[in-house]
Design goal:
Order of helices and strands: HHHH
Structural class: mainly alpha
Number of strands: 0
Length: 90
């Protein structure tokens, strides 16, 4: 039973990896100036003037999560799921 679960997980991962590679060509990337603008807007609008919080380990992690990690997670999980329901085109 355990080996069947492991095998199923491996097959699902392989299929997901193949799908992700295919979808990679559709990605858009942000340049340094746009990233700086996004960063300053995020800091001003979301964190306000609480510089002390952003300088803590928790605040820095939350800031980084908002700035980049959510995008990476969406590209890894959400986009392939959407593509499985309705194929995404470039």
């Amino acid at each position: 039973m355990r080996w069947q679960q492991d095998r199923l997980r491996d097959v699902a991962f392989t299929l997901s990896l193949q799908q992700t590679r295919r979808l990679t060509c559709n990605r858009r990337y942000i340049d340094a100036n746009a990233m700086a603008s996004l960063s300053s807007t995020l800091f001003a609008e979301f964190f306000g003037s609480d510089v002390r919080y952003v300088n803590t380990p928790e605040g820095a992690k939350e800031y980084h999560d908002h700035l980049t990690d959510r995008l990476h997670d969406d590209r890894r999980r959400v986009v392939p799921w959407l593509d499985s329901i309705r194929p995404l085109k470039g």
